[in-house]
Design a protein that fits this description.
Its main location: membrane. Pfam families: IRK (PF01007), IRK_C (PF17655). Belongs to the inward rectifier-type potassium channel (TC 1.A.2.1) family. It catalyses: K(+)(in) = K(+)(out). This protein is an alpha+beta fold and about 400 residues long. It folds into two domains: about 75-180, Helix Hairpins, CATH 1.10.287.70; about 185-355, Sandwich (Immunoglobulin-like). About 30% of the residues lie in helices and about 20% in strands. It is built from eight helices and 14 strands. The protein has helices at about 5-30, 55-65, 65-70, 75-105, 125-140, 155-180, 185-190, 355-370, and strands spanning about 190-195, 195-200, 205-215, 220-235, 240-250, 255-260, 265-270, 290-300, 305-315, 320, 320-325, 330, 335-340, 345-350. The strands form four sheets. Strands 1, 2, 3, 7 and 10 form a five-stranded mixed β-sheet that branches. Strands 4, 5, 6, 8 and 9 form a five-stranded antiparallel β-sheet that branches. It has a two-stranded antiparallel sheet with strand order 11-14. Helix 4 (about 75-105) runs antiparallel to helix 6 (about 155-180). It is elongated, with a radius of gyration of 35 Å. The N and C termini lie far apart (about 90 Å). Mean pLDDT is about 80; it is low at about 5-35 and about 385-395.
C-alpha cells in the first residue's frame, strides 16, 4: 500500500476525521419529531412552561389596571431601564418647562434685556442650565447657583408640581425595587428537592419517596406538602383531556401539615388501591407518559411571607427498587450533621416487581405465618456516643 505524502496525506486525514465525526453526530442526532427530553409543564426549578395565545386586546387592559403587580413582575433589566427612564425623563420634561418660562420672560442669552430686567430664575439662560436646575430641584440638591427670584407666579406653581411628582416617582420606584428584592420566590430558591424519586418498601408498604431539604437554618413555618399527577386521559365519551390533574398525597412520619422542617425530610406516597400508581410496575414505568408535580407551601420565619416551592418528575426520573442513602448523622461532639453529598444518591434494595406482587407475597406470608426479615441501609456517618462523654448541661 502506497502512503501519500505532503498535502495529499494531510487532506486524506482531514477527510477521514470529518467522515468519522459525521458518523458520530448521526449516531447521536435524532429526527426533529423525536425530542430527547419530554416537555414539562413545571421545570425542575419550579418555573411553569406555558404560554398564552390569542388573547383579546381588551384582556390586555387588565395588566394596566393591576399595574403594581405588572411592574413587580417585570424582569430586572426592564425595572432598571424604567428606573433610569422615569427620573431622566422627568428631569428633561421639566427642564423644557423651565426653559419655556425663561424664554417667555426674556432671560435667555442673546435676548434683548431692558434695564432693570428681573429674571424668573437666576442663572438659567439656556437649555443646559434649565436641565441642571430641573435636576437640582427634583433631587433637592440645591447647589445655590440657580434659584427662584419670586417675581414670577408660574415658577412657584411649577416648582411645587415638580417636587410632588419627584416624591411620587421616588416612592414608587423604591417600592417596586423593595418588593422585587423581597419576593417570596427568592426564599424558595433555598429549598431543594432530590433530582430523582425512588420506589421501595417503607413500613410494610410500597411507597414513592422524594427528598426535600431547607438550605437555610431558619424554618418554614406551617409547611404542608402535596402533589399533582398530570397526564393525558380519555373519558368514556371519547373526550381527550390534556393535563388532567390527579391528587397525590405525600406525608412524612409526623404527618403532612405543620412540618418541623429543620433538616432534610423524606416525603413518601403509599402506593395502594387509591393511588394513581397502583397499576404500574418496574417494567411499565419507563413507558408511561405523565408528570408528577410536588408542592411545598410554607411561611418564612424571618420575613413572615408565604412561599411555594415546586418541582416535577417524569417517569425516567423515578427509580424503581432504589432507596435514598442516609444523610443525617451525629458527631462525637453531640451535633447533628447533614451530608448533602448523598442528598440525591440512592442504592438498590429488594423491592417487589409491582403492587400486585407485593400484595400476593404479603397474603402468602400471612397465610403461612412467616415473618419477613427486615433489611435496612447502614448510616456510615453515625457515631456511637458514650453517655459519660456528655457535658453536664446543668452547669452555668
Amino acid at each position: 500500500m502506497n502512503i501519500p505524502s505532503g498535502r495529499s496525506f494531510d487532506g486524506l486525514v482531514f477527510v477521514l476525521c470529518s467522515s468519522r465525526m459525521f458518523q458520530l453526530l448521526r449516531g447521536h442526532m435524532k429526527p426533529a419529531g423525536h425530542r430527547g427530553c419530554k416537555t414539562r409543564l413545571v421545570t425542575k426549578d419550579g418555573r411553569c412552561n406555558i404560554e398564552f395565545a390569542n388573547i383579546d386586546c381588551s384582556d390586555h387592559l387588565a395588566y394596566l389596571v393591576d399595574f403594581w403587580t405588572t411592574f413587580v413582575e417585570f424582569r430586572w433589566r426592564f425595572v432598571l431601564l424604567l428606573f433610569v427612564a422615569s427620573f431622566t425623563g422627568s428631569w428633561f420634561i421639566f427642564s423644557l418647562l423651565w426653559y419655556w418660562i425663561a424664554k417667555s420672560n426674556g432671560d435667555l442669552s442673546g435676548q434683548n434685556r431692558t434695564d432693570g430686567h428681573i429674571q424668573c430664575v437666576d442663572n438659567v439662560n439656556g437649555l443646559t442650565t434649565a436641565f441642571l436646575y430641573s435636576l437640582e430641584t427634583q433631587t433637592t440638591i440645591g447647589y445655590g447657583g440657580r434659584a427662584l427670584t419670586g417675581h414670577c407666579a408660574g415658577t412657584v406653581a411649577l416648582i411645587i408640581i415638580q417636587s410632588l411628582i419627584g416624591v411620587f416617582i421616588n416612592c414608587f420606584m423604591c417600592g417596586v425595587i423593595l418588593a422585587k428584592i423581597s419576593l417570596p420566590k427568592k426564599r424558595a430558591k433555598t429549598v431543594t428537592f432530590s433530582r430523582t424519586a425512588v420506589i421501595c418498601l417503607k413500613k410494610g408498604s410500597l411507597c414513592l419517596l422524594i427528598r426535600v431539604a431547607n438550605l437555610r437554618k431558619t424554618l418554614l413555618i406551617g409547611s404542608s406538602i402535596y402533589g399533582k399527577l398530570l397526564r393525558t386521559t380519555t373519558t368514556a365519551d371519547g373526550e381527550t383531556i390534556i393535563l388532567d390533574q390527579v391528587d397525590v398525597d405525600f406525608m412524612v412520619d409526623a404527618g403532612k401539615d405543620n412540618l418541623f422542617f429543620v433538616c432534610p425530610l423524606t416525603l413518601y406516597h403509599v402506593i395502594d388501591r387509591s393511588s394513581p400508581f397502583y397499576e404500574l410496575s418496574a417494567d411499565t414505568l419507563p413507558q408511561q407518559d405523565f408528570e408528577l408535580v410536588v408542592f411545598l407551601d410554607g411561611m418564612a420565619e424571618s420575613t413572615s411571607s408565604s412561599c411555594q416551592v415546586r418541582t416535577s418528575y417524569i417517569p425516567q426520573e423515578i427509580q424503581w427498587g432504589y432507596s435514598f442513602l442516609p444523610i443525617v448523622s451525629r458527631t462525637k461532639t453531640g451535633k447533628y450533621c447533614v451530608d448533602f453529598s448523598n442528598f440525591s444518591k440512592s442504592v438498590r434494595v429488594t423491592t417487589p416487581h409491582c403492587v400486585h406482587c407485593f400484595q400476593t407475597d404479603t397474603d402468602q406470608r400471612n397465610h403461612n405465618g412467616h415473618n419477613q426479615q427486615k433489611t435496612g441501609i447502614d448510616n456510615l456517618g453515625f457515631q456511637v456516643i458514650d453517655i459519660h462523654d456528655f457535658v453536664d448541661i446543668t452547669k452555668m
